[in-house]
Amino acid sequence: MFLALFCMALQGNAQFVLKGTVTDTGKNPLTGAHIVLKDTNYKTTADNQGNFSFTGIKKGKYLMQVTFVGFENVRRSLVITRDTELVFILNESAVVSDVVIVSAVRASQNTPTTFTTLDKETLTRRNLAQDLPYLLNQEPSVVVTSDAGAGVGYTGLRIRGSDITRINVTINGIPLNDPESHAVYWVDVPDFASSVNSLQLQRGVGSSTNGAGAFGASMNLETNSIRSQPFGMINASYGSFNTYKTTVQAGTGLIRDHWYFEGRASAIGSDGYIDRAGSALNSWFMQGGYTDDKTLIKAILISGKEKTYQAWYGVDEYTLESDRTFNWAGAIFEDDGSIRFYDNQTDNYQQDHYQLHLSRQLTKTWGLNLSGHYTYGRGYYEEYNQGEFIGDYGLQAFNDSIATTDLIRRRWLDNHFYGITWSIRNKHEKTDILLGGSMNKYDNARHFGEVIWAEYASPVRQGDHYYDNTAFKTDFNAFLKAAWTPLANLTLYGDMQYRIINYRVSGVESHGESVDINEKFNFFNPKIGASYESEIGTLYASYSIAHREPIRDDYIDAAPGEKPEPESLGNLELGLRKTASDLHYSVNFFLMNYINQLILTGEINDDGAYIRKNVGKSYRTGIELSAGYRLNTLMEIDGNLSVSTGKTDYRQMNSEGTIENFDNVDILFSPRLTGAAQLRLFPAKNLEFDWLLKYVSKQYLDNTGNENLVLDDYLINDVRICYTLNAEKFPDVEFSLLVNNLFNKKYESNGFVWDNTPYFYPQAGTNLLAGISVRF
User: 572, exposed or middle or buried, with CB in 10 Å at 0-12, 13-18, 19+?
Assistant: First the structure.
């Protein structure tokens, strides 16, 4: 009797194994398919053979959902009373998938390059108010920084030591990098993460095809995909430094199975950690179009408007110790030694992006993508300057005895960027060939300055510009990509790109000198590689050659008699990656050899941008490791570690006017060690607790190896708590709390050198962000 009762108790508390396979109708495994047991913490992705498994499943009723891009979702009700094995066969979607739009720039499982893909769920979980770079902080080899110290306003990231000017960024395959500076100003597209369906981060040259060459990494963003059902979302968050975000988003779903519309409006604001580093950011996103089984038409508007108080001056070591939040921007020094501040020392800019995409499945094996785009940017930054020479601004002094004056100036940029991209794809069982290209034009980009007030002078004529120059740039490229699978587990890959750039600038620069740039570049960028599927994962190897033209500031900041040269890169990637039901891991070695690399000198120009110059021998090399394991339904761990070095031979003129040589020294902003770790706990239904760690080792602020010009290493701990309230008859409500820098670590993530003196950008101590999202 006792034995029978004991056996019944064991059966009542028994735990079972649930496993299965996900394939298409041709029995091909759908690697990466998402499998979720609804209203539980069980979720995973299918491995390279399409297999998945869950352990520790208790007896009961469950609803399982299986999804994969381009295929119809499957939901199945289950009753678990024993170990269970399932087979899911997914049918291709009746409408063309949005993912075809980014197919030309995306890497797949068998592409021999190093990459990470973040889905919408991951981005949404991280997105409270901080800019997009901060949502990538846990990714391998990534370092983020914020001028205002709190992740809102002007923010940036580096990957493998390379800054944003060397990272190729595209939205739906359309270049986002500014054609002249190669920079991406995330402040111009605030809260864009709310409209991103997925983000792929490729380290190294990657598979970039459109826009500036990838000299450290490439990032391609896919905007929201079509949803079949109507939806709505309201998100609000608030936290330290008066930081807030409000987002309203809604979509119609498919109307009559073909038409759809979606819109989003966001407002973000923050006072910033640094004094007077406030930001007021607004953005809009709208898309709509038509889809059927062979055609996708998609029109998109992305618009952002920002007003940000300048915080790009940093502080010296003395101020760092005595008043680390001090901001020199807008300082007005009075005769009695006191300081007051100009209240409108701000950056003001608006940028509107228009995109139109057409995807057409011509036959079972042939597909066409055609996209047109137009971006209009305009704005200025305003400054109060003291003791400026009146003659430098074309002003009229009140009398002949006055040579200098205090004044307020605005420096303007008004630009237009437009073009087309296209690709034709032929895909068979063993071959995948992609032919494409783009033609883009940066047209009539005007850089000009005006004085809106002067204490002892007046403009010669109202509205006169004290400098004015115009830039034009055309960028044409054509590429051919091919993947061939001669054996079941082996894929060979080749890629050839030819790129032609014409760049012209003429007029007068802000320092009063004439500028005349007329350059043409022809670049051939080949790639070759292979991948092999094995039981331990996907083994891959590739070698790529990339070229890159100098940016505008390279010409403007060049020393007299010097001219910047284009740079080239040879990139070797060797790696292994595997995704299984409860485990994923990757390890890769990289070597990036540069010729004529334009590296940062550590100094900045009068616009706050880093100065660059060509160097001789330089390289970056290292090993990147990442892994994640789901221990059980209550715990999941994830982490990565990058061990790397960047070296160069560097020459600079010292204060005595002689040239000093520094051989095989560390390239600035190249930490030898970066790492991230995440512990995720699921202590109760719909409750998630994340402990996040980020470590960045010492970084040099110039290229001389001077130990007095460094950023110290730092280890940051963050905590994130999320709770979702589900009810059948009510909208889902999610509550979030993010505690940044839990242990109040004082650290600096960026800096520069001026007159051999280091300046730093302090980051915030412990700070909070709390949010609520309502989805219906």
Answer: middle
